[in-house]
Sequence to fold (730 residues):
Amino acid sequence: MSVDVTHNELREVTGPSAIGGGSRRFFDLLWLISVTEFKRVYFGTVLGYLWSLIRPLVLFGVLLFVFTRIFKVGGAEVEHYAVMLLTGIVLYTFFTEATSNAVTSVVSHEGVVRKTQFPRLVIPLATVVTAAFNLLLNLIVVLVFILAFGVSPAWSWFLFPVALAFLFIGAAGVSMALSALYVRFRDTAIIWAVVAQVLMYLTPILYPITIFKDDTTLRHVLMINPLAVIFEQVRVWVLHEPGAPTAVEAAGGWLGLLPAAIIFVGVIVYGAWYFNREAPRIAEAL
Amino acid sequence: MSASDRLGVTLALGEAHGASPSDPEPTMSANEELTIQPAVSGAPGPDAPAAIRVEDLHKSFRIPTQRVDSLKERAVHPFSSRDYRELHALDGISFEIRQGEFFGIVGRNGSGKSTLLKLLASIYRADSGRIQIAGRLAPFIELGVGFNQELTARENVVLNGVMMGLTPKEVRERQDAVIDFAELHDFADLKLKNFSSGMLVRLAFSVMLQADADVLLIDEVLAVGDAAFQQKCADAFQQMKGEGKTIVLVTHDMASVEQYCHRAMLLADGEVKYMGAPALTGNEYLKLNFEGESSGTGADDDGSDGAKLLECKLVDDDGEEIFTVEERQPIRFRLALELQRKTDALHLRFVLANSTEFGLFEFGTLLTEAAGDDLTPDKRLTVEVSVENRFAAGRHFLNCGIHSPNGINVYRPKAASFVVFGAKDTRGVMAADYEIKVASEDRG
Fold:
């Protein structure tokens, strides 16, 4: 029997890791898993994609009623309160959807993690990408509302993707940390559900940051939250309201943004570091 | 067991001559490289480059005696997380597998073989030691891992292919071939949740074969599917071997190792107990199994049954213990036994059984005082048995029975085990002489 063997060089095998296996494969997998997950969720149900739209829209409707008819937050304060509210809800829905799905993602993919070899980081990141697909579709609806409510297009809209990128990266950082933490501490899911709820009220979604007119200290404190920075800036860039302060102004100068920047970078670095540290042993800990 | 045997026999036939099993041409020539392996030839030489090299591999798991899973428990017992037991799954393993080799790893449950497989497959990380692998490795730890029930067969094929390291383009090119191989052409766009388990297995196996890796790690997935599909799988394995792929088979079933592998390794308690020819590894494995069992019901009970079987060995002409015998060479056993009560007559009965424990040949003798046999107690009897060897290549067992009218009653299944090896390209349970003549004449 003539055997034509191609002789390969021996290479060191170091075990599973967060990214290992080549960036090409990493992104192929990330894309494929995100797309199939997206399809799975929305082609598996009768109304499909509509569900991902209905949820934020219902929330929007309820909150709009509560805050314009009962508490009268909007109206006088903000020119486009409804649009501000909708944009904020849609963006924040992305953030919670991405992170809360990510928390349990590694554990719920247990079968794959324990039996196959692939870059572990793909799993939490895929939930963020899947959520991003939803976000992009929802933004189309937001755009319709924005135009319908009389906000005119502006050049600053082109800066919107920058804010989206920050939001995406932040969600990815949180997801990495949470998904790895959850493997060790199952409390993580519950804690994060509460934290996400609190974060929503700490972020200027339901109210404009300008509501605290006289209390500049409180404004500065609120701007420690990186999400607040992103959401405020979106309001300036997309809704370009005359009265709306930029993130820098709301934080009281560039120095005021420093805590938010540190937290933002800190979460991402910690998430990446922690996930990378845990990745080799995730299969055993499950 | 019988399923993998079927597959095994087919493979063994093909391997001897590098022909496909369906090749109808009978080949008479004896294989010149007579080895102790039954029917498996074509092993790469010792100078072949290494495909897998493992050096002093250690892996232990911490088994917490009380699992601390929540923050509250951690807060209440801040130090209880240190309360664990260290389990040494692998304790300094070293071996080398050559390129193009079909290598078996056997061991009982908990011997560390699955841990080793997961380390090789990059699912676990070793505590210390080195693993080196040449080329791309495809692990098949379980069929159908990562299948998503909500996706169609086609989507799953793509997803799995990329998981195994192919590019999406490569996968799309071969997805039709994969689905055809699985005989699922009509169901390609059906969601997996609607598949029967047989269809799932076929799809999983096809996906596994598409990976086109240089080194394949296979964990007891051979005995799947119906007979026709198994034949296909056997052909596929055959082809992979022909292409010089390295295949590592992890199993606790010795029969498949003996029929596929060039070499095998026995793991026990996280250490390499034996490495060498599959037949010899098989013997060590059986010994290990019997040691474990005999502590409960073995030798101790024999005395109360009136006799003790002290040893039962396969021996060569010089009386040395051996574990393999060539086809057609007589099979010789030596038994030693002690009687514990006096008797006038003693029956010795033997059954030669094959690896499926099917009795092929039963025989025996009657010993009587009248005929001059010394059947007094506390004497050691040595019995020499010689049997004409008409048995097919493969593992065989000798079951021994010792009985007397006055109540001596000892039965020892698998008192000895051995492997018949041969180079003839035959199948079945026996090896008969045969001759095939072909004549041709004009049809006129």
